Amino acid sequence: MLPHNHRRYSFCDKLSTCRGGYDTETDESLRQRYYEKINTPATSGNAAHYEQWAKSVTGVGSAKVFPTWNGAGTVKVVICNRNKRAADAKLIKDAAEYIETQRPVGATVTVESVQEKAIDVTASVVLANGIELGQVKSEFEKVLTEYFKEIALTHKYVSYAKIGSLLYGVSGVTDYSNLQVNKGTVNITLTDVELPVVGMVVLS
């Protein structure tokens, strides 16, 4: 049986901060977790099991598991919040406490937050008539944020070409030049525990 789309009610405004600074779980996120659970074999405390346990905690957006990271019987679980940003101390504590109730006997579990890697972008843009630079910058930051959320803890780099494509796709941008990402023109490598976040964006 597939999960149903039940109407949900929230006592916080859409633009306000909810649940300690991260978004409540959407129907789409819940549906994705459901399919992950039935499509990813999770047995006897394997890596998939730890990932499912972590992501079932309210506020956790993604998780990555490192078995035997510090020797036999050790497991590290790295998490981010639902906004795909670093987890705060309370979220780490909540995840650790829940996993402790589920883990196999004898396992030593460490739960840590992801590390944020700021991605700075500079470029010169050519705008259509009547388009304000501030308007373009705001829209570009929004699409950058969505791109970074999509690749959080799943990709090993931020694509320089993708950022250029996103900039060119912003309404009102007819061309761009001198694009630099973190002062370079190459992909930005991410470690296993890093996720990208929007840093300084300068358009001229």
From TrEMBL:
Belongs to the Mu gp47/PBSX XkdT family. It comes from Aminipila terrae. Residues 42-112 form the Baseplate J-like central domain. It holds the Pfam family Baseplate_J_M. This is Uncharacterized protein. PANTHER family: PHAGE-LIKE ELEMENT PBSX PROTEIN XKDT, PROTEIN JAYE-RELATED. Residues 119-203 form the Baseplate J-like C-terminal domain.
